[in-house]
Amino acid sequence: MTVLPPMVTADRVGLVACDHCGALSPRHPGRMTCPRCGGVLHRRKPDSLNRTWALLVAAIILYLPANLLPVMVTTSLFHKTHDTIISGVVYFWNTGSVGLAVLIFSFSILIPILKMGALGFLVVSVRHGSARTRRQRMVLFRIVEFVGRWSMLDVFVVALMAGLVRFHSLAMVEAGPGAAAFGAVVVLTMLASFSFDSRLIWDNDERCDER
Amino acid sequence: MTEELGACPECDALYRRRRLKRGETARCPRCGARLYGRSRIGPDQMLGLVTGALLTFIIANAYPIVVMQVQGVSNSATLSGSIVTLWTEGRRLMAVLVFATTQLFPLLDLLAMTALLSVAVRMRQGGATRPVWFAPLLRFLQSMRPWGMTEVFMLGVLVALVKLSNMAHILPGVALWAFGALTILLAAILTFDLRSLWDENGS
């Protein structure tokens, strides 16, 4: 592949790349559509940083009920247990399934927290980050995008258990309100990472180079 | 002139496109993003994989994933049955979430792939032109793809099985194997670069 002189971007030479099909078109004011695929063209994702922030804040708020409310309610002959995400991890740990405890802890607790932290850092660093870390930030963003979906794991586990364990007088498993909140956190963080335009990391860098 | 130029979707750097050999991938020299690739398998073979995945999808959804026995009483769970249970118990948001990520989006993905690949195969054989729905459908498929979560669900099933095996007698159902096969098929299907469909003698 031949690279044109370093730092030449489509934007600099007045071109806009289509987010859908990749075709380049000349930039002009007003609404632009891609001549090849008909998709709407944007120089950068519209209102990227604000949208990412808004979705991220919503996710952080919902993260509280997701962890405090029970994700699963188990009723057996004599007692009723309310399980939160953390007590689910503890259950696996105590029953000897250490591997599963670690897996669920990573997917349901560690990854969501790191993901929200990373997205927040990425948004802030678009304006205040150092040019030298741009490649590392890019790697961070890719990890965030890749890993986000796996946090749905717990939601699926609860859904399946609720569908299966239905022995009315003996044992019943029902999904708790925390599970829906947790699912919403995953969806919101995924939306937040999709609305973040990684090209902004590099745009800022170009401006630094010019000075 | 702009035909042979491309911009990195992740950092906007300009590059000149080059024809790749099968299995090769072009990466952005500035940010390392995957720019475009040429799949090891062509659209016709991919169409075969997608058809296989559709059949597997039907089996995975028609049969119980797991059968559970407690004191002589047995109960089986299909994916659809579990979703209906969530809905009727008032966990509507969760029901919608599970339905969308494990049934609706994976199915739409496979159906859209079937339609788009059929067109690509026919165009390659010459003759056919691109139908009007091609571009909107491909755009839709691209934006919908991240929301299909079959592989995550598969892992969820395994975790649920371990959890339940402590409580009762568990028999894996037909759909469990079907979901396993579907996960593998989908992983192969996802290696197909959707953007390459735009280039199929598009201009």
Automatic annotation (TrEMBL), chain A:
One of its GO terms (cellular component) is plasma membrane. The keyword Chloroplast does not apply. PANTHER family: INTERMEMBRANE TRANSPORT PROTEIN PQIA (PTHR30462:SF3), INTERMEMBRANE TRANSPORT PROTEIN PQIB-RELATED (PTHR30462). Keywords: Cell inner membrane, Cell membrane, Membrane, Transmembrane, Transmembrane helix. It is found in: Cell inner membrane. The chain crosses the membrane at residues 53-78, 98-126, 147-167, 179-202. This is Uncharacterized paraquat-inducible protein A. It holds the Pfam family PqiA. InterPro entries: PqiA-like, PqiA-PqiB_transport.
Automatic annotation (TrEMBL), chain B:
The chain crosses the membrane at residues 46-66, 93-121, 170-192. It comes from the Bacteria. Keywords: Membrane, Transmembrane, Transmembrane helix. This is Uncharacterized paraquat-inducible protein A. Pfam families: PqiA. The lineage of its organism: Bacteria, Pseudomonadati, Pseudomonadota, Alphaproteobacteria, Rhodospirillales. InterPro entries: PqiA-like (IPR007498).
